[in-house]
Amino acid sequence: MKKIVDTSGLSFKDFFFFDKMFTPKIITVIYWISLVFIVFSGLVLIFSSFLIMRYSFGSALLGILSGFVTIIGGSIFTRIGYELICVLFSINRNIEKLALDKSTEDNQ
Fold this sequence. Notes:
Elements: H1 12-16, H2 23-52, H3 57-107
Helix pairs in contact: 2-3
């Protein structure tokens, strides 16, 4: 079984001195948990709208529509937000590579 968070090659020094970033690996898990909550809340909106239907058809229709908007829009905007966070970590990783290349180039 594949691990979600790969902890091979990590030491306490990496953990306490921020030599390696753990957050990009953890963000994937948090993203999927967020998606589960978004879909759950959208489904709650949709199914609770059926209970309102006997009192007001318009309100129920609006609730069903808002449930679908919550699922679709929430999934899209959550993805965009987490991708932006991952881009920041990718930029950080590339800057670290450039600094390492520059320092090895200067030493030669």
